[in-house]
Every structure is written in C-alpha cells, then in structure tokens.
Amino acid sequence: MRNTTNIYVHVLLFACFTVQFICAQEKPLNLEEVKALALNNNKEIIREQYNLDAANTAQKGAKTLGKPSLEASAYGIYMKKYPLGLLPDYTLFSTLGVSQVLYAGGRINKAKKLASSAVDLQTLQKKRTQNDVLLNVETTYWQLVNVKGKVELAQKYQTLLNKLLIDITNLYDAGLTYKNNLLEVQVEANQAELNLTIGKDNLLMLKLRLAQLMGMKNTDFDVDGTISDEAQLIQETLVASAIENRPEIAMLKNVVEMSNLQADLLKAERKPTLGISFMESYMYGDNLNATESKDHLTSFVGLASLHIPIFDWGGRKHRVKEQQFKVEAQKVELEHTKELVAIEIQNAYLELNQAIKRVEIAKKSLEQSDENLKLHQDRFDAGTVNGSDVLEAQVLWQHAFSDLIDANANYNIRKANYIKAIGEQNI
To answer: Quick one: CATH architecture of 28-65+130-270+315-421?
Structure first.
C-alpha cells in the first residue's frame, strides 16, 4: 500500500511539473527576457568569450617570461667496440639546468604590457559583439511584434470584409446593387486572404531569426505584443561624450597603444641581452671515470651570455620606422572613425525625431479613418451610399491602422538604434 501511495505521489509531482513547464513555455517573452536569453546563448557572444579566455591565458603565459626556467634531459648511448676503448659500450647521460634572463632591453615588460592590452582589446570586442547582438535582437523583436500586429489586423479586416460581402451579396440578390460592387468586395477579400498568408509566413521567419539570436533550437515561444502608444523623445546626448562611450573608439585607442608597444619591442631588439644559466650533468657507464676508478661522473657548468646587436645594415632601424608609420596611420583611422560615429549619432537622433512625428501623424490618421468608416457604415445601413464607398472607407481604415503599427515598431527600433549609437546599452 505504501509503495502504491509513493507511485501516486511521484505521478502527481511529475504532472504538476509538466503543467508548470507548459505554462512557462506558453508565457510570452518580453524584451528583457529575450535579451537575457541572447546574452547567455548567442553563438557570437559565446565565441567572443572563448577568445577572451584565450587572451587571458596568453596574459598568464606572458607573466612567466621574466622567471627562471628549469629543464632536465636524459638519454642513453650504446656504442659497440668504440676505438681504443675510450668509452664503455653503454652510457647513461642526464642533465639538470636552470637559466635566467637578467636584461633584455625591456622586451619582457613590453611583452607583458602587450598581453595585458590584448586582454583589454578582446574585452572591448566582446562588448561590441554584445551591443551588435542586442541591437539585432531588439530590432527583430519589434519587427516580430509589428508583423504579429499586422496578422491580427488582417484577421480583423477579413471580418469586416466578410460582413460587407454578405451585405452586398444580399443587395445584389435582391437586385438593389450592381455586380461590379460585389466583385470589388470579392477582389479585396481575396487580397486580404493573401496578405494574411504572407503575414503568417513572415511571422514564422522572424521567429526563426529571433530563435537563432537567442540560441534556441525551435520556435515554440511567443513574444509580448504590447506596444506603448507613447513615443517620447530621449534627451539628446552631447556628441563628444557619446563618442567616447562607443566600444569601437576604445578598441581603436587600444590598437594604437598596442602598436606603440610593438614599436618599443622592435626598439628593444637593438639593445643587449644578458642571461645566465647553470647546468649539472651526471654520466654512468662501465669504468666511465677511469681516473677515480668509478662508473659514474658528475660535472657542473655555469654560463653567462651577453648578446649585443652591432650592425645589420639598418634592418632593425627600418622595422622600427615602419611600425611608427603604422602607428600614425592607426591614429588617423581613430580620428576618421570618430567623425563617422559623430555623423551616425546625429543621424540616429534625427531618425528618432522622425519616428516620433510619424507615430503622432499615424494616430491622427487612424482616428480620422475610424470616424470616416463609422459614418460610411451608418449611411450604408441607411441606404444613402453604396458598397463601394464603404469598401473604400474600410481600405482607408486598414491602411491607417497598418501605418500606426509600423510607426510604433519603427519608433522602438529607432530608439534602440540611438541608444546603441550613444553607447548607453545596458548589458
């Protein structure tokens, strides 16, 4: 009895979990949830994280450059019938050595700084990728909401057309209207059906695109289609400060810094290198140490080395100058990019203003077309206008409604674009 009760409990718990899971799947995703999924699962961001991990590992490797290195080796020699019997047939030889660079003209410190700058550069690259992905996510999200709204509008429009088609058919059957009025409504109904099919197909493609950005394998999700009618202007940010917020600018500054370090490394190659090493060896073989009548022999070696570049026909000097010219070219590239970013910011702000104006006009047009449709419907019911006039009013209303859906989605996209342009995306 107790086992049966446990089975019932487990089945009940599983059923509850399944219901919760299904409900969670059916809950529409809002914009912040979509962004969070993209930040965690997007393949481009994951790739940049691996690149950042590689840069961090390279930095750890660079930190070991100034430390002593320890090496050991061992090998055996078999030499049959060596002339004069100077060496035994079998010999074992092993060494243990340590070496340390005392002076390298600053190359070690520059290499460490270069590795650190590479980490900074890759960190900025990851941030830039995150910004690009988030903008793509937000753009696709609002496009999806836009198409979703248009599908709902197409269904409403079909309902209106079907009602009008019934009324016109009844009038035609009663001999109270011409056939061309009936045909006009039928043609518009056919077009509405096609538009609905196209809208549903576009909805599916946008869901596939958004699923890919979020790192999802399927399109078993829905988005919150709520769009606020309040299109508000964001306070304009000073262009000079906005430019400095952009990761692209920080990356170019970092590239200039790395190029200067590379030039310093090339200069350091023209300076002396001083190092020391110590090695102890052990040999074993039959009567190897004949002087002391022993089979083994140990030795110790200390070595100091000094390498001084003297003359190479100016090769190193020219490599330094080449790198310096590259640095200057990258500085020009930095200034050029700043100018382009300034134009991009200004353009994004103007497009945001235009989007706000478009929303305001679309609202007025919808209100006017809605009132116009009601007046035509009332007059049609009273028999003072024909079906063509009502159809024209319905088409005008449908276009106005569609324009408002487009305007609201466009505003949210332009707003996201401006926020990215001024470097104020929240990650």
So the answer is: Up-down Bundle (1.20)
